[in-house]
Amino acid sequence: MKSFKTPVAPLFVPGDRPERFVKATASGTDAVILDIEDAVAPDRKEAAREAIRTQCPRDFPIIVRINARPSPHFAADIATLAQLSSDCQLVAVMLAKAESAADIAAVWSGLGSKIAVMPLIESAAGIANLASILTSDGICVAAFGSLDFALDLGCQPNWEALQMARCELVLRSRLAGLPAPLDGVTTSLDDAVLIEADSRRASDMGFGGKLAIHPKQIAAINKAFRPDEASIAWANKVMQIATSGAAVKMDGAMVDLPLIERARRILEKV
Hints:
By secondary structure, the protein is α/β, with parallel strands linked by helices. The protein has helices at residues 21-25, 45-55, 74-82, 101-110, 124-128, 130-134, 146-153, 159-175, 192-205, 218-225, 229-241, 257-268; strands at 11-14, 32-35, 62-66, 90-95, 116-121, 143-144, 182-183, 209-210, 248-250, 253-255. Helix 2 (45-55) packs parallel to helix 3 (74-82) and helix 9 (192-205) packs parallel to helix 10 (218-225).
């Protein structure tokens, strides 16, 4: 199985738009998600598969989002991935609407246990079965399909309504020993302030990155998931003072082992 590094701002690109593939790799993203699912109409699925088979970008981390296991398109999607040239740096398969460990096993076995699986949690069933999904063989990181999840529950796709699901995804990922999950998309393309605010809120909650649907979003996402100058300055000061690892007093506050470790992790992200 190819090594996988969790991206911070992976960018969706419709699989039937090959003219965008290489452009996407130059957008500032750290991974491109070639989409055969929601971004592609049913009568364009095969065109998308052919484009991915023949025009997958080289020397750049590629994720392919495939259709859900119950979908009539699932088997053809798996066959396409099995046929990809080794020149395509396919690092993960994003499984849409993952709802059970059996869904993950179907991908894992269909690809000969060669490619990591990124379950996209988009339904009540996905959240209910999260523990078994995330402890399945081959999982690299989970992602939140917030819009479809809200549709499934019949709620608004806002932070208040989806907070429980987000917390559960972060918690269960930690318990499964997985990297911090990827948050769902922000639909606004031009409001950098909103995109950064959504991203920072996800970062504060424990997510490790956020799915992007347009190149304009990437800079704001990356900025939010990097420590700000105040955090970096605080972390540097902590590491300079707390050389023994023991609790110390700094600026009128006690800095003990958990805060020292937090400072170390902040500096790792710089």
